[in-house]
Amino acid sequence: MESEELLNGAGQNGQQDRKEKKESPLVSLEKDLAFYAESVKEVAMDILTEGISTAPIFIAHQHEVKLGEVILNREELNTNWTIQASTLEEFIEKGIIKPEKKEHFLKNYKNPQDFMCVFVIVPEGANYVFYPYPK
User: How many CB atoms lie within 10 A of CB 31?
Assistant: First the structure.
């Protein structure tokens, strides 16, 4: 699955995109992740304890994304990033992680009780970030 498919054709050249290039979007993402940390950890623990997955993945984006389920909506919370909950299994099913790369991914995956695994999607592409939960 390509990032354009995940973004649902979101405005690649929109007014908002140009403003965000002045300051890295990761600055606002870090602020939002700190704000969201307690809620994200609660969802991660639910995914783990209910046996849904051993590898929860959270998607951070500023557009509509066809992956996972919305748990924190930026418009409702007056923040910059929406967070959706997903799993390694869904990422494999959707072709974002190829089945032959599963073991490599898991080798690099950090303890989900200490870190949130965030798949950050921006118009330029997407990448994984492991963000520590506050102690």
Answer: 13
